[in-house]
Structure formats: C-alpha cells, structure tokens
Amino acid sequence: MNLAYWLLGMVCFALLFGLTEWVARGDAKDEGASS
Amino acid sequence: MNAVLFVLLIVGGTAALSWPLGRYMKWSMDPGADAGPVSHGFNRWFLRFAGPLGQKQQNWKQYMLALLVFNVVSFSVSFAFMALQQHLPLNPDGMKDLEGSLIFNTSASFMTNTNLQHYSGEASMSYLSQLCALMWQQFVSAATGIAALTALARGLSGRKVMGNFFVDLQRAAFLVLLPVAIVVASLMVFGSMPMTLQGAAHATTLEGVEQVIARGPVAAFLTIKQLGTNGGGFFGPNCTHPFEDPTFWTNALAMISIILIPMASVWMFGRIIGRMRHAGVVFGVMMALLLVKVSGAVWFEQAPTQAFASLPIEQVANLEGKELRFGSTTGPLWAVITTSTSNGSVGAMHDSLNPMTGLFPMIGMWLNATYGGVGVGMINMFVYIVLAVFIAGMMVGRTPEYLNRRVEAREVKLAAVTLLAHAFLILAPTALFAVTEWGTKTLNNVGAHGFSEMLYEFSSSSANNGSGFEGLGDANPPWNIATGIVMILARFIPIILPLAIAGSLAAKKATAESAGTLKVESGTFAVMLLATILVVGALTFFPAAALGPIAEHLKFML
Known about the structure:
The complex is a heterodimer of chains A (about 35) and B (about 550).
Chain A: H1 2-34
Chain B: H1 2-29, H2 37-50, H3 60-83, H4 100-111, H5 121-124, H6 127-156, H7 165-190, E1 201-204, E2 210-213, H8 218-227, H9 248-273, H10 276-300, H11 330-340, H12 355-367, H13 376-396, E3 401-402, E4 405-406, H14 409-434, H15 437-440, H16 447-462, H17 477-506, H18 523-557
Antiparallel strand pairs in B: 1-2, 3-4
Helix pairs in contact in B: 1-7, 1-9, 2-7, 3-4, 3-6, 3-17, 4-17, 6-7, 6-8, 6-9, 6-17, 7-8, 8-9, 9-10, 10-11, 10-12, 10-18, 11-12, 12-16, 12-18, 13-14, 13-18, 14-16, 14-17, 16-17, 16-18
C-alpha cells in the first residue's frame, strides 16, 4: 500500500520532468527559428 | 499605539537586518573572483563534496533537472524514514507506523517547503523521523529555494550558464541557513525553549493523576522551521504550544526569523543582477503590500468575535484562539507574516480570526510574493515583473524590455501560465471538494466559513505555506492525496517556468536603454508593478473571496 503512494509521488515528478523537457524544446525551436 | 510600535519594531527591525544579511548571502551564494580566500576555500570543499555532479556548469534545463532529481531522492528518503520508523532507533515513546496517504502527504509537504501537517508530531513521529525525515528537509527544501533564486538571478544578469545546483545547494545550506540557525537556536534555548533527546517527561499532578509532557529537540526544529519559511511545528498546535513559544521575546524573535531571509533574498537578487536600486523598488512594493495586509488584519481583529456577541460581558478585541500573554496584536500580525512568506507556522488559531481578518492571510498566499518563501518569493515576484513590463510596453506601443533584454511572446506566455497554474491548483480542487463528500463530510462548519476552510487549505497547499485554518477533518486519504499532489506541482511549476524565462532572456542580445524604456528603478515602475499584482490578484481570486470570508462578514452585519 505504501509503495502505491510512493509511486503517486513519482507520477507527479514524471509530469514535472515532462514539463521541463517540453519547455526546453520550445527554447530550441525559438533558437532554430531565429537562426 | 502599542500595536503600531510592535508592528514597526518587528517589520522595520527585520528590514534593517535584511540589508547586511543580503550582502552576506550574495557573498555566500555567488562569490565573485574578489570574494576572498575564505570563500574560495569553501568553494573547493563544496566542489570536492559534490564530486562529479559538481564539476559541470549548467544551463537552465540542466539546473532544473538536477533540482528535480535531488527532490525525488529527498522525497523518497523522507518517505522511507516515516514508513519504517517503528523498526528504527531514536523512538523512546514507541511510535507506530503511519498510514500510507499520510506518509505521502507529509513527505510531499516537507520536501516542498510547505510543512502542511495532517499529523500530530508529538503523537505520531519518532525522534528519528522528526530529525531525519522532517528537520533535514527543512534545511534542504529552503536551500533549494535559495539555489533556484541564485540561478534565476545569474540568468538575468546575462550568464547563459546558471551555476551548478549541487554546489549552490551546499552553499545555501552550510553558509546561509546553518550559521544563522545556530545563532537563533541558541537564543531560543536561552529563552527557555526545550532542547533534549530524552523522551516525554512524566509528572504527577496534585490530584494524583500521571501527566505525560511531550518534549524533544524543539529549539533546533523551531529555528529552521522559521528561518527556512518551513512552518511545520514540533508539536501539533505549532507555535500556540507554550514549548514552541515560551516568552514574549521568543515570540518576537520567531516573527523576525520568519521574514528575515525572504527580505534578504531581495537584496541578494539585486546584488547578483547588479541593480540594487531595482531591488530597492521591488523591496518597497513588497513592503507596501505587507503593511497594508498587516494594518487591515490588526484593524479588523480589534472588533470582538461574534461568538461572544450575546454574552453579558464587556466586549473587547477578538481574543478567541489567541495567546493571551501576548495580546490581540501578535495573532493577526503573525498570521499575516506567516502567510506572506509561505512560512505557515501559526501563533494563533486562524479559524478563530474575524472573517475579514482571515481574508488577509489568504491574500498573502494568493499573491505569494510579498517577500514570499525563502528564494521562491522573489521568483514569484519576478513573474509579476515580467507581466508588468509587458503591460507597460503595450500601453506605450513599444517592445517591452527587462534588464536590457526584450520580453517577447514566449516569456509572457510562460509567466501567464505560472500565475494561472497557481490559481488553478487552488480554485479547481476547492470547487471539487466543495461539491463532493470529500469536502462536505469533513467540515465542522457549514456555509461561508466552511467554504473558507476548504479554500484556505488548498491556498496553503498551493502557496507551499502549510498553515491550516483548522476546523477541517483533513487527516484522511482524499485530503492527504489531493493536497499532496497540489503541493508537489505548485512547488516546482513556479520554479521551472521562471528559470526557463531567465534562460530565454539570457540567450538574447542585450539592447541599449532608450528614452522609451520603462526604467525598473523608477517610481512609475513601482506603481505599474503594484497595479499588476493587485489587478491580477483581484481578477483571479475575488469571486472565491466573496463566497468565503466576505460573505461571512456581511452575514454578521445584516
């Protein structure tokens, strides 16, 4: 049972890692467009 | 008159202390080549301790990923300590294991610098859990905030690499938080606060009944909870417990400790970006908002509570839920300071505040930038600054600029999403719990007051504040899970997106200031920033405020 709650925390972190990656891709796209 | 003097002593005195501390924080966090041999010595030690992790200078994305990975480990370590506490040492009172959703909530709470407490420390945590799962987090979560602000400031000063997270974390923990905490904890021990690893004291009362008096390493725990804007109490009642707040002087020192580092963070930010006058303007805007909130809360609390309205007694200021040794001013003052700074420790029961007094702590958590949390408060204010320069630029028909970098669509979108995420994480779950049994079955009050309790709980979670309005049966899986998820998302989204903005600005060419540039050191900028904060805050949260504290206030008037 405790493991399920630990995994819930990891799901939240997965979302945050995904958000970081997604925003960083926007950076790369902007640099590509301006170059 | 005494109330005014007391407020001026606490707020003004702390503002004066924040100036030298801000200078010291700059020396600690972002030492230049001229920082001296002591700084370089520390730097070598931190680099060696970080090993291969500390060798590389990181851009915003690498810095952010390092920060997240560190927090995954922090969360997991705290989780493990609490889940296994019944098998571990330093458990003289034989504390049992905790329920799973409560472990999730508490791990999320302390890892995110929130310290929302759905447990009672003295009744459920072993000393090892208090020290290694909770107090340790109070250092590293606060250090994470200071490190994030340092990285943001470096980006805004034009540096494409923002430093190394693992080195910055050590600087914040060992050079900023630890030395200040040792000084303040020593003063707290002199002020009669307990500091022991012996178990609970057993006493026999005059009636012959045995009384168990919980105690422990309270001074160490309390000091970092205040300095790091953590707020989680060693005892369930937090600073309303006499061992957490033994005298008038420890009360005053605790309040100073709450706002000291958030104030100093603004000066550190100014020194790193090399614009102290701009930092002064931002500091002034924060101070103006803080004083308005303090004045409003203290003024509304001078009216007697409605609970006593029909009693045949002399009606004085609202003393319900207050520490009567300290009078009726410290309660609302503490309530505003603790919610302006994302601290969350309580010196009076917020559920007992008059309805309109209770609104001011909520405003503090909604804006979350009137000094705000350690490091992250200034990051939140940076988001408002981006919006303010954008709106000002649009008003005069020029491309907005901030610190000689053009603020364009991408930065404004990221800033808007940051503010919307905070609002969404408060309002959406409040609405969900208001219409389901998850919320309605856990209320001790119905109507507007009950709505305020739920609104406060999610405001506190999203602002990473941690204080409770109380009166809510929140130690159950629905509340534990919902507030746990809100705390984690609301902690890191407002760090990820502002760091991305700083990275984006750092990648742009510097532009020269012209006659059309809004000077960020000017009074016009201060007014613009203030107006942006108030308009955005009012548009976002006024409907919820109208359903809660304002409706309750009007109910008593009609």
